[in-house]
Amino acid sequence: MGWLVTGGAGYIGSHVVRAFQAAGIEASVLDDLSTGFDAFVPDGVPLTKATLLDRDAVRAALQGVDGVVHVAGFKYAGVSVQQPLHCYEQNVSAMVILLQEMRDAGVDKLVFSSSAATFGTPDVDLVTEQTATRPESPYGESKLIGEWLLKDAGRAHGLQHTSLRYFNVVGSGTPELFDASPHNLFPLVFDALVNGRTPKIFGDDYNTPDGTCVRDYIHVADLAEAHVAAALRLAAGESIEPVYNLGSGAGSSVRQIMDTIRDVTGIPFEPEMHPRRPGDPDQIVATGELAARDLDWQMRHTLQQMVSTAWEARQKAGDAYPA
């Protein structure tokens, strides 16, 4: 018996698998490898190569598991605006199939990897679980619908669940696992430096200490441990909140990120300054107090460690890093 990690061959999911292993808990993976890598799945961990839209594959993967950590999904908020139907198919239709098959298999525990995109652009600097949800993209909407589906499934047939919301995930828990997203800040900056380009900052006139946007950055290994802590709480039958924010409570500015990357990589550069992008708020940071109370949530890594582990993984990837 163990836990099924959907999307367990991806950047976040593969760290969740390793966190289960570190806790002495068996894990299995279902992943279509659309953005993941089979090499990210540890030896001996069962891997079902299939999409969640494949009902038969989902049914087979659920046999003999205690619960599910649902990480799989279409995660590109900007792209979701151009491809809303694809986003809803991957994030909503797929979850409906997963929940139906879980119900039929008698698997009644689920930890959902949700998103701070459910908040849209908050009108507060420090986001809490009570902050209003106003998603501004099909991606954010699909994650919020996912949370609604869990609530309804819990009410209808006893599903035990929780959803974890977070902003920017960075770093690496082991050099073998890297972030290959073409939209995330760290990979974008690393890719620019590796290819001899100058990284860009969009806007230095925000109402922040150094004029650049302030955002929440959390280390992927800390995030993975929180998923496992939530799974253990569900398995023990302990009370659990329907939603937790996994935040730093402080955040880091884009300028701070750039300065730290320069220090860690040893590559001298001065970012190109460009006009701010429409809709970018000055600061979005979440508190993690509730998760600290129930899930032992902590920021165990400094910004320096976030950058250094991410850079080490990017260097080790070498030719394996997608162009």
Please sum up the structure shown.
The chain has 323 residues and is an alpha/beta fold.
Write the layout of secondary structure elements.
Layout: E1 2-6, H1 11-22, E2 27-31, E3 47-49, H2 55-61, E4 65-70, H3 77-82, H4 84-105, E5 109-113, E6 126-127, H5 138-157, E7 160-165, E8 168-170, H6 185-194, E9 200-202, E10 214-215, E11 217-219, H7 220-235, E12 243-245, E13 252-253, H8 254-265, E14 272-274, E15 283-286, H9 289-295, H10 303-317
Parallel strand pairs: 1-2, 1-4, 2-3, 4-5, 5-7, 6-15, 7-12, 8-11, 9-14, 10-15
Antiparallel strand pairs: 10-13
GO molecular function: UDP-glucose 4-epimerase activity
Family: Belongs to the NAD(P)-dependent epimerase/dehydratase family.
Cofactor: NAD(+)
Percent of residues in helices comes to 25-40%
CATH superfamily label of the largest domain = NAD(P)-binding Rossmann-like Domain
Largest sheet: 7 strands, parallel
Strand content: 15-25%
> Which residues sit in consecutive blocks of at least 5 with pLDDT less than 50?
none
Principal-axis shape equals: globular
The total strand number stands at 15
Number of domains: 2
